[in-house]
């Protein structure tokens, strides 16, 4: 009796539980159905709204192209807000191009303040909204620039369009609203431009310019036109000047702009006026002083890695060849910077092929990843580097050595002429002297003199320069013969360098260098670098 009642109770509870679960599942299905319907309705509503907005934008630009009357800045602002609300890079590419052209046309209008797009910046109600809108528009221009290929004709036109937008709204010099009485507004407008440039920098403005410059210049023939290159370099320089050459902006400029292969050569060829701007801002000196701090130089090299560090080095050398006064005044810093950068590259130069090395046209086998996209620009990079061992720069760097006058009070005995024969036409014992006899003033230069302190400023400077060229020889392995040929081109460099070596120490001669071999110090290595450079160059002449 009790068991029957208990079983019926259990069945009742089971049915009640099942009924509850069914009701809960039903409610969940209803809730899910409602949510799905809501999402679908929202999606359809969004699609409908986007179609309506895009149709409105098309109608606006269509009537603007067909009509003769110019659109007011406020109407352009409103249609731009709608386009940016539904903006999609793929779908709205052409609409965005029309918007940019419409804005630029409004800025070209004569004596029509209501048409000028920038006039909205003077409206109290719209200033903040206008600034946000122009920031968004300019960043979309940057994103398009990253994707464009300057070597394609259609893309090159779009590159010019987006660059014109950036040039126009990051500087007030072309704003007609500031002419005449509007000149009083210039400080406020300059502040807005600085705000816009700061926003772009935070988003990655310099990375965009680097990609564009690399796409257009890292090739045997540049695909960027003179106007485009001028615009890009002006845009790159504006934030640096606006920030009064702060360390952060100089760092970005060095990493992203100065590391573009042979950019200084392209500037000199296509738009030499930009080099005059570099000189007017004394940028070369600022670069050298910034990189002369070892921690900052190491940071830049680590960010760039070997291939791009070499590109930066080439551009700095080329700039140095154009700025004699700065090079003479900052020789110590210039030499120190190049030594640091070459030493960084040298750490990854390998003597032989392995699974961890890659071939580099200048460095040889290299243990860091090599950017093979830079291979086309390697001839231009090599030409830039050649200035380092060119006559002009050697005369500046070795000025202390070359300014010396060799002693001529003793005549070197003339060797008796020997009959020419295949076995004894050029005796090896006389080859070394013949190399020196190219100079008109080779007298008494092999005699140890001594008396010059090795810790003097003059000796330390010459040691640093010899360390630089010795590091260059051991790092740029694939152009070693070019370097040696350049160093031995001047007839009087080696004789005068040897005369300088003979004056070192209290007694002169090789005794000082024999002592250096027993001392494993940095100072000893610097002194030995002088002798090693002399020996390498002499061997190159003899062989």
Automatic annotation (TrEMBL):
It is an enzyme of class 2 (transferase). The keyword Ligase applies. GO terms for molecular function: ligase activity; ubiquitin protein ligase activity. PROSITE patterns: IQ. Keywords: Coiled coil, Ligase, Transferase. InterPro entries: E3A/B/C-like. Residues 9-36 form a coiled coil. GO terms for biological process: protein polyubiquitination; ubiquitin-dependent protein catabolic process. It catalyses: S-ubiquitinyl-[E2 ubiquitin-conjugating enzyme]-L-cysteine + [acceptor protein]-L-lysine = [E2 ubiquitin-conjugating enzyme]-L-cysteine + N(6)-ubiquitinyl-[acceptor protein]-L-lysine. The keyword Nucleotide-binding does not apply. Its EC number is 2.3.2.26. It comes from the Eukaryota. This is HECT-type E3 ubiquitin transferase. It comes from Syrrhaptes paradoxus.
